[in-house]
Amino acid sequence: MTTTKLEFKDVYKSFGDNHVLNGINLSIEKGKSLVVIGGSGTGKSVMLKSALGIITPDKGSLTVDGVETIGMKPNARDELMKKFGMLFQGGALFDSLPIWENVAFALIQAKGMNRKDAKEVAIEKLRSVGLPSRVADLFPAELSGGMQKRVGLARAVASNPEIIFFDEPTTGLDPIMADVINDLIVEASKKLGATTLSITHDMASARKIADEIAMIYKGEIIWCGKAEDVDHSGNEYVDQFIKGRAEGPIKMEV
């Protein structure tokens, strides 16, 4: 029996005359990894922000565990957010906090854990992403980009979330470090049994971490299927995107 963890139904969002989401329909089963591919400006980030409640859709339905989240009261929203973890594109670490406090931020601020216990959890999570305990007392500026991305991943899984969002997890990394991060994402997600939604334009990353892949184009999901089927999707837009061809139905707007 499959259980839908997160579902978008006919979700629309516009900013003035800019129609960003044009009826998104997407569902993710519990414990599965869905990767949404698509170019810049296609609505990937707005879709994630809508799921997190940062942006309120104009219409449609967005459910978590069958519960409608659009229009949810603040207290219920705060409780819902405890189910989520997030790895941000740029790391989004707090420069003024040591690494362990970055990792333990939600544990201290949202869950009220005491600092001693929170630091122990943070060090454990840092080790789980291949970082030694000595890193805990350093500051973000003292780490490389790849190490910062690992810290971001440790923070995303620190509170053992049920749902994890990955926003362009390999952007700015060399191919080897990107592959290391992909492996860590798969390992961390499987260990937690988490449901994951990732957005990326990195096909190597998508192939590695996805159970299913969906493509968004002009604010709509135009194809969705198993990761192994993406190379023979039968969709000319998907085919052009994954092969990185300039010629095809997708036209660059300049």
Written overview of the protein:
The protein is an alpha/beta fold. The chain has a domain at 1-78 and 192-254: P-loop containing nucleotide triphosphate hydrolases (Rossmann fold), CATH 3.40.50. 34% of the residues lie in helices and 26% in strands. It is built from nine helices and ten strands. It has helices at 44-52, 74-81, 99-103, 105-109, 115-128, 145-157, 175-192, 203-209, 236-243, and strands at residues 4-15, 18-29, 33-37, 59-64, 67-68, 84-87, 163-167, 195-200, 212-217, 220-226. The protein has a six-stranded mixed beta sheet, sandwiched between helices. A hairpin with a 2-residue loop joins strand 4 and strand 5 (67-68). The longest helix is centred in the last third of the chain and has 18 residues, at 175-192. It is globular and about 55 Å long. The N and C termini lie far apart (47 Å).
Strand and helix layout:
Elements: E1 4-15, E2 18-29, E3 33-37, H1 44-52, E4 59-64, E5 67-68, H2 74-81, E6 84-87, H3 99-103, H4 105-109, H5 115-128, H6 145-157, E7 163-167, H7 175-192, E8 195-200, H8 203-209, E9 212-217, E10 220-226, H9 236-243
Share in helix: 25-40%
Structural shape: globular
Structural class: alpha/beta
Q: Tell me the strand order in the biggest sheet.
A: 6-7-8-3-9-10
Let me know the number of strands. Answer: 10
* CATH topology name of the domain at 1-78 and 192-254: Rossmann fold
Give the mean pLDDT. Answer: 89
Poorly predicted runs are: none
CATH superfamily of the domain at 1-78 and 192-254: P-loop containing nucleotide triphosphate hydrolases
**Please, how many helices?**
9
- Major sheet attributes: 6 strands, mixed
- The CATH architecture of the domain at 1-78 and 192-254 is 3-Layer(aba) Sandwich
Please state the CA-atom Rg, rounded to the nearest Å. Answer: 18 Å
N-end to C-end Cα span? 47 Å
**What series of H and E elements makes up the topology?**
EEEHEEHEHHHHEHEHEEH
